[in-house]
Amino acid sequence: MQIPASLASLTVKALAESLTLQNMKMIADRLFDYYDFNKKTGFSYNLDIPRQVAAKQFVADVKNEGLFVKLVQVLIEMHTTGYMGKKYPIKYLKEIISNIREQGIIYDMENRIFVEDPAIRKTKNWGTLNEGEQYLFALLRLDIAGNSKLVREYPDDIIQATYADFREMVYDAVDRRNGRIWSWEGDGGLVAFFFSNKNLYATFAGMDIVNRLFLYNLTKCRLKQPLGVRIAVHSGLMDYTDKEEDLKRSDIIKTITDIEANHTKPNTLTISDMVARGFCKSMIEVFRPVITGGSKTYYNYSLQWETAE
Question: What's the whole-number mean pLDDT along residues 261-273?
Answer without folding.
Answer: 97
